[in-house]
Amino acid sequence: MSVIVERAIPYAEKEGYRFLEVDIHRPAEQDGPRPLLHYIHGGGWRRSSRQLAPRETRAWTPSLFEQMVGAGFVVAASDYRFSGEALYPAAIEDTADALRWLRDNADRFGIDPTRVVLFGQSGGGYIALAVGLSRDVEPVQGIVAWYPLTDFSALADDDPASDFPSKWLGAPLSTVPDLVEQARLPKLARADAPPVLLQHGTADTMAPFEQSVRMHDALVAAGARVKFDRFEGAEHFFVGCDEEQVRAIFARAMQFANDCV
User: Fold this and answer.
1) Which of 91, 156, 220, 260 is geometrically suited to a Cys-Cys bond with 80, CB 3.0 to 4.6 A?
2) Residue 236: CATH number of its domain
């Protein structure tokens, strides 16, 4: 499939900050509106880029974004402000703004605004869950999160995994308990939440496996629809899985996304 990419389209201008931009990947020939897959990159809320696919997929040909389009979606990859620019919850607010903008401009990009799946990895997985489970955002139809952090209250200050969230919150986690509680995602679980797919390695040290366990258990307790794929011995970025396994993980994510729309 031939894919066209429109890059660096401004979706928001926050006073005192740079333009926030989005890239759109879609078929060169498109017969009618397609569901939207909104990709939210990782990087611990302080680095990386909307143009970068997850590390474990960057050598793929066709690229991850091309394969997402091939799975039947228009794909949007959006910017958000990093922790060195603006602290929590700026990145969440930016992504919610990007989603609203994409829906408002659905006709321009051949998007069906009633069929939306959020796909985030690592820090982007946190953002996907935060936006997708928010009652302040028009409901999405599904959420895919690869190895996300979800509950900073489970992280000690000396845990290496606390480094990124502490910088995002602006202080050691133990010193801002109210903010840590505010940022907990499991408390957003509810029976009418969109379907969620969590995919996480059991040996992850950057975003401990227990983080997805907590999210899964909260969603189950609330009566929500959730699937949880666990990969024994896999680290962050699914290190420990071979390429065939990673491709199968991605295929599973795309099947889930299509089932949601």
Assistant:
1) 91
2) 3.40.50.1820
